[in-house]
């Protein structure tokens, strides 16, 4: 199983808080691609879908600095956290303190919206 991995940007200003790798599980990458495909199909504009992808990946990359920022919900998985990069989207992730990694488990529509 190959995971997509985002490390802090090379040219970013060094600081002591950027210390966790961000790893996308294959399902999360597929979730993002599915959302982008839907946006492309409904809008017909590739630029909107590209901005969506950039926004989600940028948000997830920022989790490397403050991975414990969002509250744990512990529904099915220990240490599962949910973050909301946009009002319509939710990112499920977990933090491994030992490996200093943030695992992006899934990206889906905000369940609080009707």
Give the key terms:
114 residues; YaeB-like fold; 2 helices; five-stranded mixed sheet; alpha+beta; 27% strand; disordered N terminus; single chain; globular
Low-confidence stretches: 1-16
CATH architecture: 2-Layer Sandwich
Strand percentage, roughly? 25-35%
Question: What CATH first level would be assigned?
Answer: Alpha Beta
**So how many helices?**
2
Principal-axes geometry comes out as globular
Secondary-structure element string: EEHHEEE
Rg over alpha carbons: 14 Å
Structural class determined from secondary elements: alpha+beta
Distance between the first and last residues' Cα: 35 Å
| Major sheet size, sense and barrel closure | 5 strands, mixed
Give the CATH H-level superfamily: RelE-like
**Count of β-strands:** 5
Strand order of the largest sheet: 1-2-5-4-3
What proportion of the residues is helical, as a percent range? 25-40%
Structurally, the number of domains stands at 1
Protein architecture, described:
The protein is α+β, with helices and mostly antiparallel strands. It has one domain (28-109): RelE-like (YaeB-like fold). It is built from two helices and five strands; from the N terminus they run ββααβββ. The protein has helices at 26-43, 46-62, and strands at residues 4-6, 21-24, 80-86, 89-96, 101-109. Strands 1-2-5-4-3 form a five-stranded mixed β-sheet. A hairpin with a 4-residue loop joins strand 4 (89-96) and strand 5. Helix 1 (26-43) runs antiparallel to helix 2. The longest helix is centred in the N-terminal third of the chain and has 18 residues, at 26-43. The chain is globular, with a radius of gyration of 14 Å. Residues 1-16 have low confidence and may be disordered.
